[in-house]
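anyone seen this seq b4? input:
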Amino acid sequence: YYFNCLPLDPDEDLFLIMGMGQYPNLGVADAFAVVVHDGVHRVVRASRALGLDRMDTTVGPFSVAVIQGLQELRCRLDAADTGDATTLAFDLTWTGAQHPIEEPPHRVRDAVGRIYLDACRMAQMGGWSGSITVGDRTWDVTPDAWWGSRDRSWGIRPSGEPEPPGITAHLPGDGFNWLYAPARFEDQSVFVICQTRNDGSRVLEEAVRVWRRPDGEGVEHLGRPEYELTWDDDHRFVVHAVVRAGRLELDVRPWRPIHLGVGTGYGFDAEWRNGRYVGDLVVQERAWDLRTEEGRAAMWGIVDAAATFTLDGAVGHGLFEYLFL
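predicted toks r here
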């Protein structure tokens, strides 16, 4: 599971991302939540032995409960007493804005041709209700003011302890250039995916919109996606983008970036990786002060940014995710 929760008003200075995974071949379940607020990158993470009950979607203080299939889910992080200073908790209910879509299969090979990622996702835009607590402040979350995207993936991905690289450690990589942009408008949702190798060839591409109509919903395939990015002076963050696919042209203004891989186990931390066994039940909290050079230097890898989208004069909101290796 992956969820994000963003306010439609950027002045709220808050962006929350949460996730939970089960790894049957590794015998592990884990979960995380990460929030950037008031210049601090805060993470709560938990891991446990998976056991035999696949219906148990809890990991320590985290839980995901399906209230109505493909439409309504409840996500919770109870306040955890870990002895650390960071405080993060939430009780949020997700309601889908349209039916989820199934994205194309995502298969990636390494330099010798071996498949190391073979997965698929369903994706959906929606809204939130409930509450979020960060430190001594609590936000009341309502679906008219807090939107987001979610996905659920299944398949094979490089989780747990890294496998021996063999000859691939001495071969040039193909590059991993990734852009993912799901956006919600009042009458439609748009999903754009693009992964490109360094030579310009595409591994994955998709651009669709899901219309909300009184007589049901319709999916429109838009064609090959292309994009133009404007970076900040340090080439760390995208500050503006234009995404095109067929007749569609999205103007994108990212406003709250989160380095998703830092602290969450999303593939980049040696001490904490998705699927890695760290104990029968372990719960931790971590914080990085982004107002310091040391905190900023720790941020790298995939970026998930809350963003404002403009399409044919209409304003929408959603996720702008990117990684360029």
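The mean pLDDT is 95. DSSP finds one helix and 23 strands in the chain. kinda curious what u guys think
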